[in-house]
């Protein structure tokens, strides 16, 4: 047996087995479903083992088999080593199969970066996985990542993840999947993105971002952002958008039939001058108490309003709905708070009269019961709370000056 002997110092000699061909791939068979990629390797074996790693990501992708549904479904993992100049190549993920590229290093600081474009053409695969996943973990992409598919493609998902540092764990150039119909979701975890376009069709993907710095534009069937530093000038969702613990650093135009914010995210969006495009409703957790969402000014003598405009008078729906309605023209005499507008138990809505007009302003609930009145010749406000069945008086007051 060949081996390496450590220092004795009165201890039994320890032998460590080594390959019969030191440094040769032939002596170390590769793992079945995990391979190694080293762009700086000087080995010649190139079979994906530790001793003979692939030199390019393309070689790893070519080694991915699709012999059965089970083979296509089980993850096939390539461990990417840092390379001095990164990986200057275009990368194509195999169709219909689950494949991962993983690195255990900060991709923003070393060579675990793909200096090229990435494609996942989920078209005409040999066997369709039960569900197919493509994952890039601690691997950045400087080019464009494009996903396409065909009618036979399995339900699919793409994940970008960086786990060492929030917001800059990985960076991704433009992501485009607007032509794909089987891609259910795209997850960005601790990632910086240049732009994301998943499309806005019924078959488009849901975009989920956590700890990310999105810029450019973000487009998807649904867009969900958590703990993000939003630098995107536009966020567009076909169905709904969700923002939690987010900070907006540029003016963002939001286009979404329904959107939900926590107070912090809304105040950041609103404070920097965020724009609600036509038809965009906003619900803030807690309602008015969570953050004021201005609706259109009250002008008619009798007006119906709600948090998201459902059941409201024309002119107080979509981007003109909110949880805070004001009047200053001395005309309105009645405002009715409608239910069915997305309110949850405990949510609040505020009606404010800012003028000293001779009109008294009555605030009524959905049952047409008066829950508060701002007297004539005074300015004031009424805050109502939803008790699970209807709006009830919460607080209010008025001033004669």
Given helix and strand content, the structural type is: mainly beta
Pick out the low-confidence regions. Answer: 1-25
CATH class membership of the largest domain: Mainly Beta
For the record, the CATH architecture of the largest domain stands as 3 Solenoid
Overall average residue pLDDT: 92
User: How helical, in percent, are the residues?
Assistant: under 10%
Report on the architecture of this protein.
The protein is mainly beta and 401 residues long. The chain has two domains: 25-284, Pectate Lyase C-like (3 Solenoid); 302-399. It has helices at 57-62, 69-73, 263-271, and strands at residues 34-37, 76-80, 91-93, 99-102, 113-114, 118-122, 132-137, 140-141, 145-149, 156-161, 170-176, 183-189, 191-197, 206-210, 213-226, 229-244, 247-248, 253-255, 258-261, 275-276, 282-284, 302-305, 324-327, 334-337, 348-353, 361-364, 370-374, 379-386, 391-399. A hairpin with a 4-residue loop joins strand 28 (379-386) and strand 29 (391-399). The model is unreliable at 1-25 (pLDDT under 50).
Short description:
The protein is mostly beta strands. The chain is built from 3 helices and 29 strands. The chain folds into 2 domains: 25-284, Pectate Lyase C-like; 302-399.
């Amino acid at each position: 047996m060949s081996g390496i002997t450590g220092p004795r110092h009165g201890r039994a000699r320890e032998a460590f087995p080594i390959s019969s061909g030191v440094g040769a791939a032939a002596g170390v068979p590769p793992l079945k479903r995990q391979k190694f990629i080293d762009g700086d390797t000087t080995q010649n074996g190139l079979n994906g083992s530790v001793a003979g790693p692939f030199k390019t990501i393309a070689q790893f992708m070519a080694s991915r088999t699709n012999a059965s549904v089970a083979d296509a479904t089980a993850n096939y993992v390539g461990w990417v080593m840092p390379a001095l100049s990164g990986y200057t190549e275009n990368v194509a993920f195999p169709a219909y199969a689950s494949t991962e590229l993983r690195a255990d290093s900060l991709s923003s600081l070393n060579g675990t970066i793909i200096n090229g474009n990435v494609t996942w053409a989920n078209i005409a695969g040999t066997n369709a996985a039960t569900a197919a996943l493509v994952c890039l973990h601690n691997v950045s992409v400087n080019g464009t990542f494009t996903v396409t598919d065909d009618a036979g493609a399995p339900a699919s998902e793409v994940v970008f993840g960086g786990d060492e540092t929030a917001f800059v764990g990985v960076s991704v150039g433009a992501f485009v999947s607007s032509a794909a119909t089987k891609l259910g979701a795209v997850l960005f975890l601790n990632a910086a993105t240049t732009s994301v376009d998943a499309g806005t069709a019924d078959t488009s993907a849901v975009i989920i971002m956590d700890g990310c710095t999105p810029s450019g534009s973000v487009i998807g069937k649904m867009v969900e952002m958590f703990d993000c530093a939003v630098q995107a000038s536009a966020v567009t969702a076909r169905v709904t958008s969700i923002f939690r613990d987010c900070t907006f650093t540029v003016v963002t135009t939001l286009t979404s039939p329904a959107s939900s914010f926590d107070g912090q995210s809304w105040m950041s969006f609103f404070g920097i001058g965020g724009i609600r495009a036509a038809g965009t409703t906003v619900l803030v957790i807690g309602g008015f108490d969570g953050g004021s969402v201005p609706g259109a000014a009250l002008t008619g003598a009798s007006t119906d309003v709600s948090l998201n405009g459902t059941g409201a008078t024309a002119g107080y729906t979509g981007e003109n709905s909110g949880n805070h309605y004001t009047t200053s023209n001395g005309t309105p005499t009645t405002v009715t708070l409608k239910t069915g507008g997305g309110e949850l138990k405990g949510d609040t809505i505020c009606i404010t009269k800012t003028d000293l007009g001779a009109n008294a302003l009555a605030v009524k609930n959905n049952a047409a019961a008066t829950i508060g009145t701002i007297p004539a010749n005074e300015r004031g406000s009424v805050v109502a709370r939803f008790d699970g069945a209807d709006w009830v008086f919460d607080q209010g007051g008025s001033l004669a000056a």
